[in-house]
Amino acid sequence: MIRKLDMENLTYAFPEVAFSEDYVIATYQAKVQTSHIEKLAMAIAAEQTTGTWIKVGADSLEKTKRFGSKLVALYEVPDIGCDYNSDEPPIYIIQVAYPMENFSTSMSAIETILFGNISASGMIRLIDVAFPKKFIEKFQGPKFGVEGMREVLGVKDRPLLNAMIKPNIGWTPDEGAELFYRACKGGVDVIKDDELMLADGPFCPLEERVSKFMAMEKKVYEETGEHSLYAVNISDSTDKVKENAYRALEAGGNCLMVNVYTTGHDTLKMLADDPNINVPILAHVNFAGTMAASTYTGIAAPLMIGKLTRLAGADFQINGHPFGKFPVSHKVFYRCFKFFTQPWWNIKPMMYACSGGTTQMAVEKIIKEVGTDVMLAAGGGVHGHPNGSEEGAKSMRQAIDAALQGIPVTEYAKDHVELARMLAFLNPDLKKNFDLML
């Protein structure tokens, strides 16, 4: 017979005890009004392993010891004392240790174990996970990452420049190839499909657009000496994604893009782990907001789009920033960047592609925040130039040069007409500064 105290002690441990063993430590946030938070926290821990809401016959002390989780930390924010006088429920930070034996290298299994049923509670948010080194070593992560991307493109020390084809959809392979040529001739390093572009739609077939884009890549290199990548969207139903990848590579493709949060992290991992797919992979962030935008539920953005997507093998990923059109805070931006890039044993850093209203005016601000190991993803900032995509790309490269030299962009524009035209277009009040040029 198992005493109540024995069972409770099996699901409770000091953090240092769990860290000394083979456990994955998940950190949750819960906002709930209860006087029995420890029982609730242990119930959360049990639900994700061997526990059930009613005792079942096949349960045993041995199973709980081997496969059961442990509640290793429980904190209130604020840490309530006798002087607390509020009806507002406190926020609890709960850390649960899961035996590494429960996991596989399947991203689906990892996410289910960490946040499966309890995600439906409506009161819990998964904010971080600490994986043991011996577990992380089972993963390859990005094939290229930050340094590999720089090596492929031959760009050593400046931010990379990305532009998506605009408009988002509706263009033919010939129209897209012309935009590719103009943008890359002007200085764009990476062209990507929009996430709305079908992998192989009737209006813009996959092989045709890849082959025509790559012909333009060769032409630009012959004219400028600069290589460029085309991140072709291969997102599709699960059974077609790898086939699309192979077809893109056979047509000469040199980069792939996948909508990770609709196709799944295991789809990304399948591509990254395939030895026959030896090109950089772009993870697109669309749909992530359904899981990472809430304050009290879902998964924290740095964990989901940073740590988990990097673990699955993306080389670079589109994400927002505070200086564009999406409400991304400085905190989220900076923490996501760190989760993309900070040292993580054998897992290479993943490049952050700053997207969503990235204009020439935002370049200096982004570089000041996170440095030069970023990609600047500018669609309108390139294709929206009054004189077309080539001058738009030149103006973005000029804004990058200005930031690297520590010269305000409005000053640098006085000697660079492409940049001056775009700044005047973005902010008509600046036009008077460049009247003699324009």
From TrEMBL:
<feature type="domain" description="Ribulose bisphosphate carboxylase large subunit ferrodoxin-like N-terminal">
    <location>
        <begin position="20"/>
        <end position="135"/>
    </location>
</feature>
<dbReference type="InterPro" id="IPR000685">
    <property type="entry name" value="RuBisCO_lsu_C"/>
</dbReference>
<comment type="similarity">
    <text>Belongs to the RuBisCO large chain family.</text>
</comment>
<dbReference type="InterPro" id="IPR017443">
    <property type="entry name" value="RuBisCO_lsu_fd_N"/>
</dbReference>
<feature type="domain" description="Ribulose bisphosphate carboxylase large subunit C-terminal">
    <location>
        <begin position="145"/>
        <end position="423"/>
    </location>
</feature>
<dbReference type="InterPro" id="IPR036422">
    <property type="entry name" value="RuBisCO_lsu_N_sf"/>
</dbReference>
<dbReference type="GO" id="GO:0000287">
    <property type="term" value="F:magnesium ion binding"/>
</dbReference>
<dbReference type="InterPro" id="IPR033966">
    <property type="entry name" value="RuBisCO"/>
</dbReference>
<dbReference type="Pfam" id="PF02788">
    <property type="entry name" value="RuBisCO_large_N"/>
</dbReference>
<dbReference type="Pfam" id="PF00016">
    <property type="entry name" value="RuBisCO_large"/>
</dbReference>
<dbReference type="GO" id="GO:0015977">
    <property type="term" value="P:carbon fixation"/>
</dbReference>
<dbReference type="InterPro" id="IPR036376">
    <property type="entry name" value="RuBisCO_lsu_C_sf"/>
</dbReference>
<dbReference type="GO" id="GO:0016984">
    <property type="term" value="F:ribulose-bisphosphate carboxylase activity"/>
</dbReference>
<protein>
    <submittedName>
        <fullName>RuBisCO large subunit C-terminal-like domain-containing protein</fullName>
    </submittedName>
</protein>
